[in-house]
Amino acid sequence: MSEETLASSRLVAARAAEGQSLSLSTWSWIGYEVGRVPYVVLIKIYIFTPYVTKVLIGDPVMAQALLAGFAVAAGVIAALTVPFLGAALDRMGPRKPWIAVFVLLEIPLLISLWWAKPDRSGLSATTVISILALLGLLFAYAEILHNAMLGPSVGIRRAGRYSGISLGVANLFTVAIMIFLLWGFALPGKLHGLGVPDQPLFGLSQADHDMERLLGPFIAVVVFVGLTGLLRFAIDAAPTRETLGTAVRSGLRDVLVLIRSLPQQRNILKFLIARTIYGDGLYTLIKLEGIYASGVMGWHALDLLAFAVVKIIFASLGGLLAGVLNTRMGTRRALILELCCTILLLVMVLGTTPTRLLYFWQYDLVAHAPLWSGPVFRSWPELAFLLISSSMTAFAVATTASGRAMVVEIVPPERLGSFLGLFHVTASTTAWMAPAMIGLFTAYFHSQSLGLIPVAVLLGIGTIGLLFVEGGDRHGAKQRSGIGRA
Questions:
Q1: 471 part of a folded domain
Q2: Rounded to an integer, what distance in angstroms lies between the CA atom of residue 353 and that of residue 113?
Q3: 12 near 155, Cβ under 8 Å?
Q4: Among 18, 229, 367, 408, which is least packed by CB within 10 angstroms?
Q5: Is the pLDDT of residue 19 over 50?
Q6: Comparing C-alpha atoms, which of 156, 147, 171 is closest to residue 230?
Q7: Is residue 482 part of a domain?
């Protein structure tokens, strides 16, 4: 099959999606994202992993060491395999069968989390952490392939809009789940009124942490429903009749050719560098927001749960905002604006403490009466921190959505899997930069606020780098690629 025929066959599906409005293909692509994001938010960040750390293991230091060790192992495996997976599937064409394989491997692992019992009569802590690491690897594989389907399923011209909409809808669904979990399982017996039940729903036990353990089976169902729609309705890349063995061998060669040819792909290389720099700062910021709020504002469990709910609501709005900005301004300009807003809001967050508002206004907690009688966010600095930090999250999510759309718009469609894999590897191999600089600044200045200055610097450098990138305008991006196949 000639290169021209190969490239043309890959664009058939994308063009089929271009002429439709919000088609079943688009909805099904969004639906899979709606199933994937709750795993990230509820399992990895806010509920299940903290349960493993605080309850199942009980020793925060040992838990952090175990989680870090297994995460590093999974990250190394991903870095060594993701580019070749993407390149091989570029050769074969369709991504849906392989997404199905990874999801069907995820489902029994998710279900098994029910047996992560607090009395350790079920799965051991090491087994649970191993399962979490393997789930992270499988979800990373499926995410790369799902992102590679954005062009065919939605249409390249509409990728910017629906990349943002999908994250917005997924976060709205996630916050609905979290509010239901708080209302039906976490708050009964602790908060009276507002329709909160006296006992957890369905006879579940708070002492046995049934809510946390049930998340795995619940998300298994959600992911499976999302997969079903994707398999049934999403437009995929056209098949090329290459066998798996041939595709793997050719994919290995393609990755080497891709890396060697990057200096000739100056536009993509510039975006790769900019995205790697701002991405390192952005993802580190997202991971540290809860720790920063807890340390600087002195917030505890209930404050942080309420904080998380508000931030996820803003995250959903950020995804929707990205869809609008990408369409109105063009993806590259939207990405630059979103990063600038993130930097500005980060600087504002760093200047807000329980006794200081935006650097300049001192606030006496004794002299000022509480704003209301509720259990959380009772002072102006707390309320300001909540709103500024949540707005920052909205623009951070918008940046993620626009960055994904930018990849689809500037990378040749027939090489999208390879480049997504390469971008994943560069992000993984440089993920130490921001944490290392934050650690140095925090230790030197003995300040959590000053410790986050490197994040603003990385975001700024990445933003400047984007000024030199072409493509991502309102009518589709310029695609400059002379990469050949060996």
A1: no
A2: 38
A3: no
A4: 367
A5: no
A6: 147
A7: no
DSSP one-letter string for 342-367:
HHHHHHHHHT-BTTEETTTEE--TTT
pLDDT at 73: 74
Average pLDDT over residues 74-88: 73
3-state secondary structure at position 19: coil
For 53-72, write each residue's pLDDT tens digit.
778 887 655 665 566 567 66
- Take residue 68 and report the two structure tokens written for it: 């870090």
For residue 403, give the amino acid letter: G
Tokens 């480049």, located at residue: 419
pLDDT tens sequence across 156-179:
677 767 777 888 889 889 888 888
pLDDT higher for 160 or 451? 451
Give residue 20's region: left, alpha or beta (phi > 0; psi -120 to 50): beta
Structure confidence at residue 346 (pLDDT) = 94
The dihedrals phi and psi of 356, each to the nearest 5 degrees, come to -145, 140
pLDDT for the residue numbered 64: 56
Pairing relation of β-strands 356-357 and 361-362?
antiparallel
How confident is the model over 364-377, as a mean pLDDT? 72
What is the C-alpha to C-alpha distance for residues 374 and 378, in angstroms, rounded to an integer? 7
Give residues with Cβ within 8 angstroms of 287, minimum separation 6. Answer: 45
**343 in Cβ contact with 459 (< 8 Å):** yes
Name beta bridge partners: 353. 356
Domain interval for residue 107: 3-466
User: How many domains does the chain contain in total?
Assistant: 1
Tally of helices (H runs) and strands (E runs) in the chain: 18, 2
Average pLDDT, the chain: 79
Q: Do 376 and 367 meet the contact criterion of CB atoms below 8 Å apart?
A: no
- Is there a domain that residue 72 lies in? yes
Predicted model pTM: 0.72
pLDDT band for position 141 (50/70/90)?
confident
Over residues 440-459, mean pLDDT? 85
Q: CB within 8 A of 170, min separation 6: which ones?
A: 30, 33, 34, 36, 37, 38, 316, 319
325 or 12, higher pLDDT: 325
Does residue 241 lie within any of the structural domains? yes
Domain CATH code at residue 210:
1.20.1250.20
Q: Which two tokens stand for residue 275?
A: 């995205």
Name the phi and psi angles at 183, rounded to 5: -65, -45
CB atoms under 10 Å from CB of 123, counted, come to: 18
Share in percent of the chain as helix, strand, coil (round to 5): 75, 0, 25
The tokens of 485 are what? 């196949």
Rg of the chain over all Cα atoms, to the nearest angstrom: 23
